[in-house]
Amino acid sequence: MSKKLFVGSLPNGIQDATLRAEFSKYGPVEDVYVKQGCDPGRQWAFVTMSSPEAAQLAKDATDRILMFHGCARPCDVMVAKNQGMGGAEPVPGGQIQVVSAGFLAAPGGGGDVPGQPRKIFVGSLPETVSDADLR
Length: 135
What we know:
single chain, about 140 residues, alpha+beta, four-stranded antiparallel sheet, about 15% helix, about 20% strand, globular
């Protein structure tokens, strides 16, 4: 089971400190990520607890119950799923697959070399993968 929670139906402009304070009632919070740039009424976040047990406790205590100032309805809280590309099942064994890498900036701008990637996005990795594994 995951120790990361998805929290939806949040009020616009909610701060990570507000979420951290609320979810700390159920155990230590390791990380809070509030998605920026959401459409009004579509604000969401990830809250990572210290253990799967703390995540389950927080989910059970807050799902469709927790209300923040400015919410139109109670928050949806669910254990986050470790998904692969496009919501697919994760790669078996936590192996990394390179789907594509490409030219991200406009051609001719900022000294970019065509065909050479400047950045890549790697998501939906198992929790056991460290920064060192990716470098």
